[in-house]
Each structure stands twice: as C-alpha cells, then as structure tokens.
Amino acid sequence: MILNRRHFLHLSLAAALASRDPLFAAAKKTAPGKKGLGIATRNPGWADRLRDLRCDWFYTWGADIPDDKPEGSEFIPMIWGRPYQPEKVAEAASAAKEAGIKELLGFNEPDKFNQSNISVEKALELWPILEQTGMRLGSPGCVHPDREWMEAFMKGAKKRKLRVDFVCVHSYGGPNAKGFVNRLKKVHRMFRKPVWITEFAVGDWEAASAEQNRHRPESVLRFMEEVLPMLDRLDFVERYAWFPAMPDNRALGTSALFDQEGKLTKLGECYRDA
User: Is the dihedral of CA 167, 173, 176, 182 positive or negative?
Assistant: First the structure.
C-alpha cells in the first residue's frame, strides 16, 4: 500500500504518542518487585499470608524489622508519626539504615485525626532527620494525596530544599480502574515524582455491613484483574500494596484477600497470581 506524506506523518505521530503513554506498553511487567502488602505483624500467621500471596515487598506501619520475615519478601520500614519526638524518629531511621535497608516510608495519614495526625509544619521539621539517613524517602502517605495537606507539605519541602524521592498514595474508591489510574496520573503530574500505592482497595464507606456493601466481590475481582496489569505497565508507579481487610469489614470486606479461615479468596488468588 502506498502512503501519502500526510498519512505517513499522521501514523508516525500516533505511534510516537502511543510509545510515550505507559498504558500502551507491553503487557508484561516493566520492573520486577512491584507487588506488596501492608500487614500488621501482631496478627498470627502474617508471614504465611505474605508467602501465600507471593509478595515482593511488605511494610507493617512500623520501623522495627520483623524477626520472622519471609525469605524473598523485602521489608520497607515506616516512620509512622507518633510519638514524633525527634530523638525517637532519629533512632528508628538509623536502625533501618544500619540493617541495610535502602528506602523509608514517611508518616502515615498525617491528614487524619485518628492516624498520625501531624501538622505540615511538624512533618517538615522532622523531615531533615529522615534525610540524614541517606535512604530513599517516600512522602507521608495521605488519605488525600492530591489535596491541601500534601500540597502544602510538598511546597514546603521544595522551599526548604528537602528531599522527597517518591510520593505515597492511599486510595479506597469504587471499582473504576481507569478512574483510579487517572487519579494516579494527576498525582504524578502535580508532584513530578514516582508513585508508591501503599494502600488501596475498593471501599463502600456508606455500607452498614459487609453483606450490604454495594461493591460485590465479583466487581472487585474485575477491578483487580483490570487494574494490576495497568499498574505494572505504568513506569511512574514503582510499587503497590493492596490493603488486606478482614472479610467482615463493613467498608472493605468485599476486598478481602483471605476468608475467615485464612484461605485465599478468589480475589486473593488473583493477587497471588499477579
């Protein structure tokens, strides 16, 4: 077939634009080690669950390195936020560095009153202590990573010449994969940093019980099947961690990876095989 010059230029431009969009990349993972989990080590069997899910990495919302950490699953510590005395923060950060860990997560949900609940000014005051470790630093993981607290923190960090290497995102919206990815792109455009999704699942915050949750397991499974390959193709998404809610959780129970007996749900099997 003979192409005229205008048609050829049109096809060349389309190909160039497609190559710049990570969603047009090949289906296989562009970087290993993205799949992770946030899990509390006080729960019996937590290490078995990590092994069952074949997670590349995990965190526990704390800085202490678990003694019985599974082989092949990288631990990433977090400086949760409270107590936030400078000496305590420095002690936890130094212990992580001495253990040979290269990356460190910042404060957990500082924009929420019943989580770390730290002011922007307090977070900026403590941040140089984390910088002194020389570790790669993830931003505070906000409930709303695209709203006032995070914008003020990143603006303040830039003004003070503080280093933030990647932005942590939490998301518990509906089962809309494209909408979720568009929000990630928005955060990436706002801060021009790589993204770690340190908590995500599908949530119905108006549900009175798991049985009344409008997001049924089947729709959550479809969401996961669609979104995980998209996340694996997005170059700016370095890691992601599904939130392992209990199956009786009213808002997140239909996003559970394990049933009440500790066996993988269909969703858990999907995450395992990702």
Answer: negative
Give the integer Cα–Cα distance in Å for 232 and 3: 35
The beta strands (E) that lie in the chain are given as: 35-38, 57-59, 74-75, 103-105, 136-138, 167-171, 195-200, 237-242
Torsion of CA 122, 125, 128, 133, to 10 degrees: -40
DSSP 8-state assignment for residue 68: T
Per residue in 197-243, pLDDT (tens digit) is 999 999 999 999 999 999 999 999 999 999 999 999 999 999 999 99
Of 27, 30, 74, the closest CA to residue 55 belongs to: 74
How is residue 138 written in tokens?
A: 């993830």
The tokens describing 268, both together, are 């858990």
Question: How far, in Å, CA of 225 to CA of 227, rounded?
Answer: 6
Which is it for the CA torsion 116, 122, 123, 126, positive or negative?
negative
Nearest Cα neighbor of 50 from 248, 244, 198 is: 244
The CA radius of gyration of the chain, in Å to the nearest whole number, is 20
Q: How many CA atoms are closer than 13 Å to the CA of 9, on its beta-carbon side?
A: 3
Count helices and strands in the chain by DSSP H and E runs? 8, 8
184 contacts 234 by C-beta, under 8 angstroms: yes
Which percentage of the chain shows pLDDT scores above 70?
Answer: 87
Q: How many CB atoms lie within 10 A of CB 242?
A: 25
Q: What is the pTM of this model?
A: 0.86
Look at the block and give the residue holding tokens 């860990």.
101
How far is CA 166 from each of CA 64, 88, 193, rounded to the nearest angstrom?
21, 23, 5
Q: Any idea which residue has 């924009």 for tokens? A: 111
Which of the 8 DSSP states describes residue 235?
A: T
Residue 223: Cβ within 10 Å count: 21
